[in-house]
């Protein structure tokens, strides 16, 4: 696929049965590369219970199921991978434990040097954007700048966090990021989520990667 793919991030709190239904409906809207089960501050048991329910639904839809930070829950639920952003040492440990069978992603670094150092661990992607920040209509300027810098210079795939409306997608796609992350734009829309995903894919299809000669 020669254009950015969707990377969905769940809300930090949700009803698991309701979320499972929404995820099923989301796949009716087309391509989704992966879904991050994002439950910051939740206990391992809570993450485990949610992952046990959601991972099979995500995988049945053809996407990779990732768990935020909790490597234990990720492993026990047979998730496809984990997103670890707590420290460089934690990232290294996750890479050693999960690869090559499973995905390890990271992000949230403040400095370019840190981003390069974390990527050198062999992670599968680098995430630009803060998952815990209140979302705006548009992507944060630092997210756009970071993703554009990374996409131009490095081979490790990157994810860029979009804003909370689909109107933000063209500017994020223009960075050259391999994946565009949606959180509130997907789950808090008044439109059915299948329609949101369909429209998001239509927008991204209109923004292919530049041809490198």
Plain-language structure description:
The chain is α/β, with parallel strands linked by helices and 213 residues long. The protein is 42% helix and 16% strand. It is built from nine helices and eight strands. The chain has helices spanning 16-27, 44-60, 71-76, 88-98, 112-119, 141-153, 169-173, 184-187, 193-205, and strands at residues 5-9, 34-37, 64-68, 81-83, 103-107, 125-128, 158-161, 179-182. Helix 1 (16-27) packs parallel to helix 2. The model has no long low-confidence stretch (mean pLDDT 94).
Give a brief outline of the structure.
The chain is 42% helix and 16% strand.
The count of strands amounts to 8
What's the alpha carbon Rg, rounded to whole Å? 16 Å
Distance between the termini: 18 Å
Count of DSSP-assigned helices: 9
Largest sheet: 8 strands, parallel, barrel
Shape: globular
Average pLDDT level: 94
- Beta content comes to 15-25%
Describe how the helices and strands are arranged:
Layout: E1 5-9, H1 16-27, E2 34-37, H2 44-60, E3 64-68, H3 71-76, E4 81-83, H4 88-98, E5 103-107, H5 112-119, E6 125-128, H6 141-153, E7 158-161, H7 169-173, E8 179-182, H8 184-187, H9 193-205
Keywords:
213 residues, alpha/beta, globular, 9 helices
């Amino acid at each position: 696929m020669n254009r950015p793919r969707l990377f969905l991030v769940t809300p930090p709190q949700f009803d698991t049965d309701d979320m499972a239904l929404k995820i099923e409906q989301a796949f009716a809207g087309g391509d989704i590369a992966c879904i991050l089960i994002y439950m910051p501050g939740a206990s391992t048991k809570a993450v485990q219970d949610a992952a046990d329910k959601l991972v099979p639904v995500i995988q049945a839809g053809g996407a990779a199921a990732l768990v935020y930070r909790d490597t234990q829950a990720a492993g026990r639920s047979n998730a496809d991978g984990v997103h670890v952003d707590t420290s460089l040492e934690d990232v290294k440990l996750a890479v050693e434990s999960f690869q090559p069978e499973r995905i390890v992603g990271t992000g949230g670094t403040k400095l370019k040097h840190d981003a390069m150092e974390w990527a050198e661990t062999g992670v599968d992607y680098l995430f630009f954007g803060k998952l815990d920040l209140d979302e705006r209509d548009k992507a944060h300027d630092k997210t756009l700048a970071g993703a554009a810098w990374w996409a131009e210079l490095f081979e490790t795939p990157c994810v860029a966090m979009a804003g909370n409306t689909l109107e933000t997608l063209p500017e994020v796609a223009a960075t050259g990021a391999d994946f565009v992350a949606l959180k509130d734009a997907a789950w808090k829309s008044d439109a059915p989520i299948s329609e949101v995903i369909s429209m998001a894919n239509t927008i991204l299809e209109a923004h292919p990667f530049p041809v490198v000669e």
